[in-house]
Amino acid sequence: MTEKEMLLRDIRTVREKINRDWTDLTRLSLSHDERTAVRAHIEQCVEDLKGLTERLDALTSESN
Questions:
Q1: Hey, which of 17, 19, 36, 43 has its CA 20 to 30 A from 50?
Q2: How far apart are CA 59 and CA 10, in angstroms?
Q3: According to the 3-state scheme, what is the secondary structure of 9-64?
Q4: pLDDT at res. 7
Q5: Taking CA 19 as the corner, what is the angle to CA 18 and CA 24, rounded to the nearest 5 degrees?
Q6: Helices 32-63 and 3-27: angle between axes, nearest 10 degrees
């Protein structure tokens, strides 16, 4: 598996985590603390996603 393929896989995985968390927020009866934890996880995933896309952009730029 190439580095690009690994990054794309990781991006898909993080996006799925974000989608699941948003679904949990809308469908589950969570306590305030649980909702806060889910939101914090979403924020961390967004930061991870930014880092992965920056790495993919850099890799793509190097290839051109």
A1: 36
A2: 14
A3: HHHHHHHHHHHHHHHHHHHCCCCHHHHHHHHHHHHHHHHHHHHHHHHHHHHHHHHC
A4: 98
A5: 95
A6: 160
Q: How far apart are CA 13 and CA 20, in angstroms?
A: 11
Q: How far is CA 24 from the centre of its chain?
A: 15
- The closest alpha carbon to 62, from 1, 12, 2, belongs to 2
Residue 6 CA: distances (Å) to CA of 18, 38, 41, 45, 46: 18, 26, 22, 17, 18
3-state secondary structure of 3: helix
